[in-house]
User: What shape does this take?
Amino acid sequence: MNELLSGDARPFLLILARIAGALLTAPIFGSRPLPLAARGGIALALSLALAPIVPVESPVGIPALVVAAAGDFALGLAMGFAASLFFAAVQMAGSMIDQHLGMAMEEDVDPMGDEPTSTLGRFQLVLAGLVYLLVNGHLLFVSAITDSFRTIPGGRVACGLEGRWETAASMAGQLFVVGLKIAAPALATVLLVTVALGFLARTVPELNPFLIGYPTRFFAALVVMALGVGLLVQAMAREVQGATFLPGLASMVER
Assistant: This one.
């Protein structure tokens, strides 16, 4: 902050570059309904708040400053992308369930990502967003950004970004497993109902499995999801708070 008041804006620009990159791809902060001006105001406010307390290595010369700012911006993008993978896993789980229930053709625009998503995928995304806010996931993300400056001071990110993108890719693989776990109860129910209807159709040939199969599978899956929504919320909160989310962001900045 002293450098900023004295006319040297280089440290502030490097801090702003990393925070702007993170907020651009982070969940909630990077969602389309949040106006661009609001995102810019949040980035400026966080940069001003962190300027007096985080270490920054100011480069000499405009070319070096541009390279350093690009490195900080890329690290912020990687951190925001890694945080958003949790929501991608939740959306994938809902899409898999919809596909097996025959509802994959009914798609609407996701309010967070402005992308087409299925009905249950949209429901689970909204639920994940509420859980994310209830467990202060947005504050945990800001804390992770602050810790990243203590591990890698601003202006020292130009090298070694490859390893951090590899960490983000590794988190994507882990959260793919998380998506399968979220969808597993409903998918298992659909499979069991389908097998039961197959045996029933062989036993009672007059029964039309196509006529009763869709509503039976749909009702059974909804019952299982309704009964397990409490466990689903607990699993989401665990992933955000400690199982995958924070360790992944920590490993990204500790390499």
